[in-house]
Write a structure and sequence with these properties.
Layout lengths: L8 E7 L2 E6 L10 H16 L5 E5 L4 E3 L4 H4 L4 H6 L16 E5 L2 E3 L1 H8 L2 E4 L4 E3 L13 H9 L1 H10 L2 E3 H6 L5 E2 L11 H14 L3 H13 L5 H15 L3 H11 L10
Parallel strand pairs: 2-3, 3-5, 4-6, 5-7, 6-8, 7-10
Antiparallel strand pairs: 1-2, 8-9
Helix pairs in contact: 4-5, 5-6, 9-10
The structure holds acetoacetyl-coenzyme A.
Acetoacetyl-coenzyme A binds next to helix 2, strand 6 and helix 4.
Length: 268
């Protein structure tokens, strides 16, 4: 996957254990067309299967993470077409990736771009990040999960206000409302890497150094909070917790603590 030339994305391994996927349609502000999503899904599937990789960063450009679904591609589609082709259904593939995904958002994250960021497990924002679900302004509604994930992330009243007006909101608001973890201040970009991307890669590296079985089970457990009711979610968490006792990494992690040494995880 790292040697492959894609047309709409770039793939790299900036640090051991970390995959960096950059959306790369700069002229269209990374508008998400079918070709881009097909490439993104393929790359993520290959990265998920790559034992050398423990965590994934998705980013865009400084100006735009992604300015939404490609309006020019979809504007003339008929109802029958979008319905029978299950238009956008493949966007959901991203949520079955086992490895943690960190979105590093700079500039516009609008419509489908905001929805893509909301599908990530962790969201870091540059001060320039501008989020928005402006679909109402072009006569349609959120189609990539925005109504559900935004409402879960920021609550009903804000989700309604934001989607019904199509207004943009800032990185600071995204953090204050619990949608993003934090704003990564613009610092010195001497190496040409945006601070938010550098920080996301460092975070991914930290996660990738842990037991991958534990990391993936932990991601699964937290995601259950957004899919199941509380008692069902707690039961799932306890089962996954018990499951870790069948792994070598749990034995190693706890033995290392008792012996006052660093654990040597084998992802088994
Ligand atoms: N689809 C297709 N092309 C897009 C695009 C999109 N979502 N967003 C930007 N572009 C293109 C523009 O058409 C323009 O192309 P040309 O140079 O060929 O004209 C290029 O990117 C640069 O954009 P602008 O000239 O408009 O740049 P700007 O700085 O003046 O404005 C912007 C930036 C405010 C982000 C503006 O481009 C904009 O409003 N974009 C559309 C945002 C939007 O409505 N997104 C929601 C899409 S619907 C959706 O996503 C459905 C869903 O839920 C899945």
């Amino acid at each position: 996957v790292f040697n492959k030339q894609y047309e709409n994305i770039l793939t790299a391994r900036p640090e051991p254990g970390v995959a960096l996927v950059t959306l790369n349609r700069p002229k269209a502000l990374n508008a998400l067309n079918s070709a881009l999503f097909a490439e993104l899904n393929e790359a993520l599937r290959l990265i998920d299967a790559d034992k050398e990789i423990g965590a994934i960063v998705i980013t865009g450009s400084e100006r735009a993470f992604a300015a939404g679904a490609d309006i020019k591609e979809m504007k003339d589609k008929s109802f029958a077409e979008v319905y029978t082709d299950q238009f956008l259904a493949d966007w959901q593939d991203l949520t079955s990736i086992r490895k943690p995904i960190i979105a590093a958002v700079s500039g516009y994250a609008l419509g489908g771009g905001c929805e893509l960021a909301l599908m990530a497990d962790i969201l870091l924002a540059a001060p320039s990040a501008q989020f928005g679900q402006p679909e109402v302004n072009i006569g349609t509604i959120t189609g990539g999960g925005g109504s559900q994930r935004l409402a879960r992330a920021v609550g009903k009243s804000r989700a309604m206000e934001l989607t019904l007006t199509g207004r943009m909101w800032s990185a600071q608001d995204a953090v204050a409302w619990g949608m993003a973890s934090r704003v990564v201040e613009a610092g010195d970009a001497a190496d040409g890497v945006l601070p938010v991307v550098r920080e996301a890669v460092a975070l991914a590296r930290e996660i990738a150094a842990k037991s991958q079985v534990a990391v993936q089970a932990q991601k699964e457990a937290v995601n259950v909070a957004f899919e199941q009711g509380l008692s069902e979610g707690l039961r799932t968490e306890r089962r996954l917790f018990h499951m870790t006792f069948a792994t070598a990494d749990q034995k190693e992690g706890m033995a290392a603590f008792a012996e006052k040494r660093k654990p040597n995880f084998t992802n088994s």
